[in-house]
Each structure stands twice: as C-alpha cells, then as structure tokens.
C-alpha cells in the first residue's frame, strides 16, 4: 500500500511530472531497494482507481475530485516509466505489458462508462508517448496541463513491435496485441450455462475477456463449483496462459478451486508453474497473510495453510531455479528465455518474490535457506541474487556460531529487505 506521503505527492496536479516523480523517489529511504515495491503499489493504485471512478465527476476533467483522480493516473503512469528510464529502451521496463494493456483499453474504449473511458483515454495518451519514445515534451507539464492536451498529444502505436520484448520478459501471451478496432464481445450468461462457461474459459486462455464477462463468469462459477471443476483447464499451460492473459480472473479461479475437491491437485500443479511475473503475483496473493476483521484470532491469515505452504514452496523454488538455469520455463511450457538479459530478468523477479514473502512474514528464511542459497549461488552476478546471498550467508554464520543448523532453529530470523 502506498504511504500517505507518496499518495499525496501523486495527487498533485500542479507540479510538473518530473518534479512529482523526483519528490516520490526522494521520499524513499532506500530508492534502489524500494523502487520495485513502490512500482507494484502504484500499479495496484491505478487498477483501483478505475474501480472507484464510476462514482466521480470526470465529465469536464477539472472538478476537484475528477482532477484528483486524473492527477493520480498521470503521475502514477509517469512514475512507472521514470523509475526504469535509466535502462534506455522502453522494452526493458518491467511494466511494458501494463503500458500495452492501458494503450489498448484506451483505444478500444468499449464496455466502459463515460467516466472510465475518460480516465483510460488520458492514461492511453501518456502511455503512447512512453511507447513512442517521445517523453521530452511532457516532463515539464503538470498532470492538469497534460490532461488538457492529452487528446492532441496521443500517438498511434504499432503494438506488434513490442511482442519480442514481452516474450523476453516472460509474458507468453502479450495482453491485447490486436487492432484497436477489434470489438470486445458483449455476452450475458444465459441459455446453456455449461456451453457459455466453457467458451469463456477457453477464450480466456488466448484473449482478454471484458470485465462484464469476467464478473458474470465468476458469479456463475461461485454458485456452482461443480461447473468450475468440470470446465477449467487444470494444466500447467492452461493456468499459466490464463494468468498471463487474464491475471485477475486467473487469481480468482485459483482461489475458488482451492475451496473444491481439487485443492490438493491445484496445490501440486502450482509447484510447476513458470517463474514469470503474473505467476509470481498469483503466488504472492495466495501466500502473503492478510488481516482479518478486528477481534479475530489470529489477526492475519493466508489462503494456503502453513503445511501446504511448505509443500508448495520447496519444490516451486527448486523447479524455478532449474528452469531459469536451463533457460526454459518449466514442464509443458514453451522455452522463451533466449538470452542472458531474459534470464537475468527472471532471476530478479524470483528474488523480489522471495524478498516480498520474507518482508511480509509469509515465510521463515531458515526453512527455505537451501533453496534460496542454490538460487543465489547460481546467479550471484545478479544484484538482487547477490543481496539475498549475503543475507543467507549472514544467517548461516549466525547459526554456525550458535552451534546449530538453520533447520534446527525454531526462531524466526528478522530479515530487513527494504
């Protein structure tokens, strides 16, 4: 979650985009280590804004509340770009898939209220400048100034040129790489329920389905879990594809499946998923504790029990390390890591995933120290792996000095990862 300081900075519609971004970075105690976590929080904020915008007045884009939302959108997107500007090419930005997705939503603009369409239009305009490499002109503009000129500044982008970059980043099926004129299907679930559910689930593996369709599909499956267990493609390729093309839907369906008789089968399947960003985000969602209503004990819980967590993570981390070493993304998944930069990117993602689990208390370092050590030794030349390696070495030394092994300890080692 964004800190109050960062949230307030991103709401500033008067300062220039570059000034806001610089102020946000300056507010971090360790920008190099916190940048990725900050970017993920900003991405979550951007997704949440569209869910709340239906109740706001954005018709003229200048009302107090409306401009507040637009400021958050414009400043937030610029920050996602700015944090990784030093890599030069937009192809190296880890949020390239998000930019492509936003551009397409703004261009297609169907199945949206006028309010959501306005937000997406402004978002798509600034993202088109990132994708075209024409960012020099907007650095000095404020969010309010950009919103006024957004339509005239928008660029037409050929998204096909980013397919290779998205593949190298581990996005097997890049989101919405299609013509902006393609019509989004408008289907209500009626008639033969099984046939429609089957068709939507099949479509969700290769193309993004609309928010309306996803909500209807989830509603039907929640009311009939037997229909879910008999329809979903419970294979490595099936789950992986859905998480890449429709990540929110994929995460929800995995959560529903864990409440069915297929729970054990799903947990076993998760061990072999490839260590790509959408997969790691889904696992993070399942593993990280979340707060329960006030007064309940324990105060937090997670979707996966402790004993299941151990049975899942030990093989997942080992399989993930081996798959990256072999430049393949796992059993039944097409080999997409074709160069060192792609391999390094997957190592970074896996290390950041582990750090997230440590930081939130989802796992105890001692229990996974050997899997983490294997990863970090193999890729010690990657900064994120080297940092984890140093943490592991410190813990190993601490326990050696204390006269017992990491596995023997029952105390949680407090690891500062931020």
UniProtKB/TrEMBL annotation:
Family statement: Belongs to the CNOT11 family.
A Pfam family this chain is assigned to: CNOT11
Localisation: Cytoplasm; Nucleus
A GO BP annotation: regulatory ncRNA-mediated gene silencing
Nuclease in keyword set: no
Acyltransferase as UniProt keyword: no
Superkingdom of source: Eukaryota
This protein's name: CCR4-NOT transcription complex subunit 11
Xref: InterPro entries: CNOT11
Keywords assigned by UniProt, alphabetized: Cytoplasm, Nucleus, RNA-mediated gene silencing, Transcription, Transcription regulation
Organism: Lipomyces starkeyi NRRL Y-11557
